[in-house]
Amino acid sequence: MSTNIDVSEEVTRILDSLSHKGVLREQLADERIKSQLLPHQRVAIDFVSRTETGTLSPNLSLWRYVDMGEDSYHQHIITGSKSATAQQVKGGIIADEMGLGKSLIMLSAIAGSFDRAAKHARWNKNDSNRDEVHAGATLIVVPSPLLIDNWIAEVRNIVFSSWKKTLDLAKKLLASNDINSYLIHGSLAISERAKILKEFHSLGGANVLLMTLGTGGVGLNLANATRIYLLEPQWNPSIELQAIGRAFRLGQEQQVMVIRYIMKETIEDTNVLQRQERKLQLADGGFLQKPQSFSSERAEAISEIFGVNLRN
Fold first, then answer.
1. Theoretical Cys-Cys bridge with 157: which of 128, 185, 203, 227, CB 3.0 to 4.6 Å?
2. What Gene Ontology molecular function terms does this protein carry (predicted)?
C-alpha cells in the first residue's frame, strides 16, 4: 500500500534532528530579515558565523586528520582530497538549486554580521594614521542560470488568436528562437487535441500552447497555465473572457497574468476597446439595474453598437 510523503517536510524533519545541535546553537535572524527561518536554518547561521571567525568545533570540520607518522595528512570527508593542513574555505557555504533554503541562511548571516563589521572598522581607529574612507556597497543575489531556466520551463503559456495564420507565424517565430510549442486549431482531430493537451500538462512537454479562440473557449481545463496572451482584441469581450476562464478552473493555485496585444493607432486602439468596455457596462447594467433605470444614455449606446435607431 503506497503512502504520500511530503518531501519538504521530511527533509526539514531530518535536518532538525541532526546531532550537531549539541555543539551549535540556534541564532535569531537579524530584524532586517523578514522571512521566517526554520530551526535548522537558525542553527546554520551559527555554523556560518563560527566558520568565518575560525571558532568552529573540530567535530564539525569537513577535514579528518589521518595519522600516518611522517606522512600524516588531512582528508576531506566528502571529496576525499588530501592536504597537509585542514583548509577551511571562507565563504564556502553557498546556495544551490537543491531548495534547502541556503540562500536565506547566507543572507541572514550577512545581515547579522553588519554590526560586527562596523565594530571591526572602528577598532583601532584612533591608532591609525589613515583617513577614514566612506564607501558604498551593494549586495546582488542572482540565481544561477540553471535555476532560472528551470523556473522559465515551469511557466505554462497559452497564446490565443482568432486566426490560424497568425498562430502559424507565431509558431515559426518561437521555433526560430529555439522555443518549442504546440498548436491547436479547429480542423485538428479531437484525438490529436487530447494528445497535445496531455503533453502540455506533463512536466516534460513544451510550455507554450497556441490556440484559436474557437477551440480554446469550449470545455477545456487549462488550470496549469499561468500566462495568457491575446494577440488581438475581440469585438465580443465575452469570447476573450471565456478563453481566459480556462486558466481559472478548479485546481489553479497560482497567479495568472493576462497580456493583451493592441496595435496602436488602429481600429483596435480607437474602436474595438471602447466597444468592449461599453458592452461590458451594458451587460452589467442589465443584471444590476432595475428596469425603470434604463436611461437615454444606455439607449444611445445600444443604438451605436448595433447600428439601429431606437428613436423611430
1. 227
2. ATP binding; ATP-dependent activity, acting on DNA; hydrolase activity
